[in-house]
Write a structure and sequence with these properties.
By secondary structure, the protein is mostly helical. The chain has 21 helices and two strands. The radius of gyration is 33 Å and the shape is elongated.
Length: about 400
């Protein structure tokens, strides 16, 4: 390609055009900055000097003059809520809603943020009322999620079911596992009041929602037991193994008590020992240990614990071994074993915890819903030490 000297003339031309464009942008920027209200810079100054109350007052004055600054208030309100200054967040969003000329979309946005403020503050009645007013808005899905959280906190399980079903219908994800748990909560309450037929109907609904729900199966066995059908309860509890082998430990005591009631305790021990061989568990060992001690004596119980300790070495297992040794220990050895056991037992109490797989919250007892993060089915049915050994 032959070089043309006239091309050199284009270089200064393009440079000049770029310089002019840059000057125009700078002038526009300066012009826009001059149009900002003085209250904006005043509010920023208050924020930088850690005077949030005065900053809020300054920003509210800006909104009265210019509704376009509402987005800044949303950011400020969220900042206060995250910092735990919920009263200030409520004040920001209430003042936004008080504007009669605020666009409808921003009204809904402010209403949603105000509902979240109330929820954070624990004002559940106000939060519920606010979110109910947003169900048909563009914030409908978020409002339904918040309502679902409120109904769970208030233990309004029927309303929680309706809210979860509404979320499913809106395409916001499957909620079948949670719905099954809500039915279980209702069934458990009915069972406490000896409304066995109602409880059974609710548990059938739970299994229709989630066939793998172990809790529903366990509770069906409880209902059958309450009706006097021990054999039926035993058959139901045995189905837990088909759903989740580790969860068998949760029904071990029920199974053993049931087999005692029907006069077949040895069959119960044999069944639980087969479960133990399939999935070792400290809770399962505890039940089998007591049953073997009653039926076969201290030596058989000791052999059982030694076998399990070799297979899964844990301090919790060692605690049971020391207990077995103390049963037939001579007086001169008993005191020493008792001292060692007390030391080991004191330490194992810190290890004998269930731990949420989502937030890590630890608890002495097993929960279907984590007290820390409110997640359902987040607790593995094994103690923390067992999980550490397995990993």
């Amino acid at each position: 390609m032959e070089f043309e000297f006239w091309m050199l003339l284009g270089i200064p031309l393009f440079f000049s055009l770029g310089w002019i464009a840059a000057r125009v942008d700078i002038k526009q920027l300066v012009s826009e900055s001059r149009t900002l209200p003085r209250g904006y810079f005043k509010g920023l100054n208050f924020l930088l000097n850690e005077q949030p109350d005065k900053a809020i007052d300054a920003f509210i004055e800006i909104v009265k003059l210019d509704p376009e600054t509402a987005d800044m208030h949303f950011a400020l309100g969220n900042l206060f809520r995250r910092r735990g200054e919920v009263e200030r967040a409520i004040r920001v969003h209430q003042n936004l809603l008080a504007r009669p000329d605020l666009p409808l979309e921003q009204q809904h946005h402010a209403g949603y943020e105000l509902g979240m403020d109330y929820l954070k503050a624990g004002l559940l009645d106000r939060a519920e009322e606010t979110f109910n007013g947003l169900v048909d808005s563009q914030y409908g899905v978020q409002a339904q999620r918040a309502l679902l959280e409120i109904y769970q906190r208030e233990k309004e399980w029927k309303r929680a079911i309706t809210a979860a079903q509404g979320l499913q219908s809106s395409g916001a994800g499957m909620r079948q596992k949670e719905i099954a748990q809500f039915y279980c909560e209702l069934a458990q309450d009915a069972l406490v009041h000896l409304h066995t037929d109602e409880a059974m109907a609710l548990l059938e609904q739970a299994l229709l929602s989630d066939r793998t729900n172990v809790r529903a199966t366990i509770l069906i066995g409880d209902v059958q037991l309450a009706k006097g059908d021990v054999e039926g309860a035993l058959m139901t509890w045995r189905r837990v193994e088909q759903q989740s082998v580790p969860h068998v430990a949760l029904v071990a005591a029920r199974l053993m008590d049931g087999y005692r009631k029907v006069g077949r305790p040895q069959e119960g021990v044999n069944l639980l020992r087969s479960y133990l061989a399939e999935a070792s568990s400290i809770d399962l060992i505890e039940v089998v240990f007591k049953a073997v001690t009653e039926l076969d004596g201290a030596q058989a119980a000791k052999d059982l614990v030694v076998e399990e300790l070799r297979r899964t070495p844990t301090l919790l297992g060692l605690d049971k071994l020391l207990e077995a040794r103390m049963m037939d220990a001579p007086p001169e050895v008993f005191d020493e074993l008792s001292m060692v056991k007390n030391l080991v037992h004191g330490y194992t109490q810190k290890l004998a915890r269930y731990q949420c797989g989502h937030c890590g919250f630890k608890a002495r007892q097993f929960y279907w819903q984590c007290p820390g993060c409110s997640r359902w089915d987040s607790y593995p049915p094994r103690r923390t030490e067992e999980l550490n050994v397995m990993n």
